[in-house]
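Annex B. Sample input.
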Amino acid sequence: MLRKVSNFYILNNVSSFIKGACIFLFILLINASSAFAIINSDINKKPLPRFASVKFEEVNVRFGPGKNYPIKYLLKRKNMPVKIVKEFDNWYLIEMVDASDAWIHKSQLSGNRYGFVNIGGYAKLYESREDETIVAKVGNGNVIKIDKCSIDSAFCEISIKGVSGYLKKQDFFGLLDGEKVN
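Annex B, continued. Sample output.
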């Protein structure tokens, strides 16, 4: 197939060249897709479900994982906690406090931990885990910052509008059972 002319090899058959080029491109494609799979597997190594928070004041959530899917509704609450239940490429299927679900692009979320008070009336914010002294009453629908939460306690250390204290885990959405937050 090849014949030597000076220090160069010349293909006698053009179809052999095309076959060789196709094989080369096929090998290149396999290696590129393997590298892409490795990159994606790093993203997917985070355990599901997990919590995140909305990064901006207004965020579109969609019926499916992509901009081609119609907007389901507009989230209008910065720091609102959402539960990530599924991942597809750069899109997350999230569950909200009302148990509704929608798709959101990962760039719209933050790893900062917040909670949403979801009990009737208000939740009591205590001075400490052991003390019954009430520092404040946090109304239903308020977003709280989760500062610290241990597995062995019924309380989490939280803050809201410059006030810190301990709130019962059962009084807010934004924490998995048995989860620790530092």
